[in-house]
Amino acid sequence: MHALQYAATLPADYDMEIIRDRVRTRGHLLDAHEGLGIKAYGIRERGVDGSPVNQYAPFYLWADALAMNRFLLGDGFRGVIRDFGRPEVRHWMGVHHERGPSAGAVPGSFVRRTQALAEGTDPATAVEEAMTGQRRLARTDGVHTTALALDPRHWELVHFTLWEGTAPATEGDRFRVLHLSAPGAKLLPTGAQW
Asked: Torsion-angle region of residue 71: left (phi > 0), alpha (psi -120 to 50) or beta?
């Protein structure tokens, strides 16, 4: 499993209805994309849920690295570049994934929390401790999907959790989900992935 996210930060007075319309008219294009586990079309709006910015920031869990590569180098991502400029694409190796009790529901939000691993921290110990929390979270009512991923370049963990409704006020960035493409959700490996 691979996790990926890019963000288009938009002006403070940007009409976010433009993004909603974009997702309404184009979101379905990845509903059958081979190799994609999940794409959550996320937005943040300035002043909502504590967000300081307007942002379009979809989050992906890929079941197949080749499919992810084809997406990034293909026509779909060319459209993102054409419309928003070439964004920085963050990428993490998946280390844990679980479906929650609301996996069959339509998610309304997600939370992305990053955790830097301090110098001298044993990465394996940090991942094990984080996975313990993710397993507990995966059993929480309202959780659709939870995943943990690692960036070994910056030694950072990313915790990603999709929620059926509004995400609880917790640490991390909160996004509203406008659409979910999940053609390969059941192909994503469950549990520890190392």
From this structure: alpha
How far is Cα 156 from Cα 118, in angstroms, rounded to an integer?
A: 9
User: pLDDT tens digit string along 91-150?
Assistant: 999 999 999 999 999 999 999 999 999 999 999 999 999 999 999 999 999 999 999 999
Query: pTM to 2 decimals?
Result: 0.94
Domains of the chain: 2-192 (3.30.70.100)
Place of tokens 């079309």: 41
In sequence order, the 6+-apart residues with CB closer than 8 A to the CB of 172 are 111, 112, 113, 114, 159
Spell out the residues 6+ positions from residue 102 whose beta carbon is closer than 8 angstroms to its own. Answer: 141, 142, 143, 144, 163, 164
Q: Are 100 and 146 in contact (CB under 8 A)?
A: yes
User: Do the Cβ atoms of 150 and 165 come closer than 8 Å?
Assistant: no
